[in-house]
């Protein structure tokens, strides 16, 4: 738990109160998926992001399941203003943008101050290509080529795909990645969704423990924080000011908007066994993120602060691939 954090400063622009502009849907760079009254808008050019997921209600207008992108965010190609974006090749931050892997110190491009901690990988900052599409699905493709030795950037080549499907059950994403290197590569992945947060919004999830954080929002120790029990019973989002990772997630979370009679179930598959809850006070949205690794997992392993079961992440051999599934399933209370 934290009263203020560098992460909050870095995403403040995403909290803009500018209302969603339906005219943004006319952007021919967005891919519209439709099934019955359900709609999903995909922005391949904005980090392979999901721009919106909603029901088109002829009486009440659009009912959004994820926080929709604004026209401002779409114009700026700002993934932090999207409904959700992919996290690859690691989730959240790496302390000081540095880690040691197989005896080699890896330095990642980073800024200064709070931004010296490498954030969310890089796939969210680059355009994805459209590999195939139809009325209810789209497959996006992304390739990262490692820089020449001594150059800046993630020093491992890989490719990734997102297969996004909208059907009668909801919106689903199949994430896949493959190591293109001739050497092993550490890898973590997930998605970073934002949700509407009207008063009374609550979330329920079963987790084992919460990572307490330091002043720079980096995990330092596992604890049985009160939020762990509150999540199991159904946590009212406004009651907790969190920016924390949870281990032992059962890969399901239930979000409810009681005043609207709506609920949204988030389901995921292994290895998305970790869960991030970001519910800073005063924002009109919150984040509940399915991820495969704890923030700074590579350094936590080296520091011996936790066993592998509590930090996640994986190592892909040359040519090895990994995949996971996640879905948002709308319903009524």
UniProtKB/TrEMBL annotation:
InterPro entries per UniProt: Aldose_1/G6P_1-epimerase (IPR008183), Gal_mutarotase_sf_dom (IPR011013), GH-type_carb-bd (IPR014718)
Family annotation (SUPFAM superfamilies): Galactose mutarotase-like
CDD domains in the record: Aldose_epim_Ec_YphB (cd09021)
Superkingdom of source: Bacteria
Name this protein carries in UniProt: Aldose 1-epimerase
Taxonomic source organism: Paraburkholderia tropica
